[in-house]
Amino acid sequence: MKTKILFLFVILVCIKLDINAQVAVIANKSVPVSSINKSKLLDIYSISQKSWSNGEKIVVFDLKSNSSAKDKFYQNIGKSNAELKKVWMRMQLTGGGSAPSSLYSEDEIVSKVASTPGAIGYVELKNVTGAVKVIAKFD
């Protein structure tokens, strides 16, 4: 009986830790900013800001599948993924831009952001490597 209770306690602690995991907004090391606010992130993810202050094109990466990182990111920028998908579709239909590249895993996002000048994406903080820089964090 004690073993079952201990097992359930461990599972609950693990779930709690996952829920509280921080999300990091990451950028390629070429990006000319060291921090970014939620308003600018919304501008970037809604494709209204297409270049960095140095003129370099912004390349946006998004997670294809639902995850806690994706949910927290969109919650923090104040738009749902569905709302932004509508914006992206409208932009594509009018020739004003294209939707962010959707990748299957956080490891893939880190790799693509690291290897793509001007790139930005988001992952859980625990998945960040030294190949990218963190420009924002959300709880």
Concise account of the structure shown:
The protein has 139 residues and is an alpha/beta fold.
What coarse outline follows from CA principal-axis ratios? Answer: globular
Radius of gyration: 17 Å
- Strand count: 5
Spatial strand sequence of the major β-sheet: 3-2-4-1-5
Structural class: alpha/beta
CATH structural class: Alpha Beta
Number of domains: 1
For CATH, the homologous superfamily is named as Periplasmic binding protein-like II
Describe this structure in words.
- The chain has 139 residues and is of the alpha/beta class.
- It has a single domain (22-138), classed as Periplasmic binding protein-like II (D-Maltodextrin-Binding Protein, domain 2, 3-Layer(aba) Sandwich), CATH 3.40.190.
- Helix content is 43%, strand content 18%.
- It is built from 5 helices and 5 strands; from the N terminus they run αβαβααβαββ.
- A 5-stranded mixed beta sheet has the order 3-2-4-1-5.
- The model is unreliable at 12-18 (pLDDT under 50).
Write a concise keyword list for the protein shown above:
139 residues; alpha/beta; D-Maltodextrin-Binding Protein, domain 2; 5 helices; 5 strands
Strand-helix topology:
Blueprint: H1 2-19, E1 23-27, H2 38-45, E2 59-63, H3 68-77, H4 81-94, E3 101-103, H5 106-115, E4 119-124, E5 133-138
Parallel strand pairs: 2-3, 2-4
Antiparallel strand pairs: 1-4, 1-5
